[in-house]
């Protein structure tokens, strides 16, 4: 996606990326292989030369302070509307994610996970109902108090609808449902995709009582980022997660904020191990599409980060599945064709926000981004894969312990995301 500014180790992104698809989307549609996709200015590009074809949900912008959502949708998967009885939707299900990350499906009752996105999804609640009914999850609606939608001022004057961001919203609320079926969901829709509006929506979510706030968007770093940190993300006692990016090695904001948990991405597949699953970095050593990572050019390093190859903020902290090739099932009917397979670090951010909710209320005055650093052994360490080329190499290559693309690893239960005396002392400011 965006290029990033140079000037610090790990802040450069490879200039080239694969953009030519083996087939055009038009050819797939005309051949009847998939349903027509909604209008979007985002291009179709392959995951690999022989892998799945994907489309960005949101168009990119290089303007300062302008964000784009980080969801990707597969274009080589047959789509359909409504609940299906004869076959499960393609993509990872709630049961798959709960199994892969050892999540307690009965925890999180009453906890509110906020989703912050731009623009409106008019079908958000009805699509959420279809997703949850498909998988036998409990109802989550306005009527029973589980679901709430608000504009960035906390009211119901929703912004203009947008098909790309509606797909992002569907992905986000479905991933909260999958990882924490008992959680309440607060959707706060920003007026636009500027950092100021999205930041105002973050503040609104916290004002409305959310202790867990997921942000699946990013943009170029710039010198104003530390000021945005103070204005929008400095909320002690609130777990704020942010997607690390979908363009491989390179840093985006607000994942670079010193106050958030930056969430990278993995490829997640079943195997014959005792865990039953294996993970590697989502990306390629050649760069291009993959989880973002690196060393911020502007944001200071939080006290709980101890890696020595980056004097400023290192990205990421933890990770979860993001590869569209091993993507998640999502239901979106707003100018879309229902069941899809989605990926991008837009998937991993709401998953991690939900794991924080499963782990319990953060301690007052602490920064939950610090918690995994106090409990690294309670994570699945991802040790293989790469998202580009860099120096020092750990910022783009997986290995034992901390690395850029996957951080400290992926959830193995909730212990790494719970407050405790060890991290409370280090996380207070």
TrEMBL record:
Protein name, UniProt field: S53 family peptidase
Domain Peptidase S53 residues, every copy: 91-423
GO biological process per UniProt: proteolysis
Origin species: Streptomyces morookaense (Streptoverticillium morookaense)
Signal peptide: 1-42
Region (Disordered): 407-429
InterPro entries: Peptidase_S8/S53_dom_sf, Sedolisin_dom, Tripeptidyl-peptidase_I
Keywords: Signal
Gene Ontology terms for molecular function: serine-type endopeptidase activity; tripeptidyl-peptidase activity
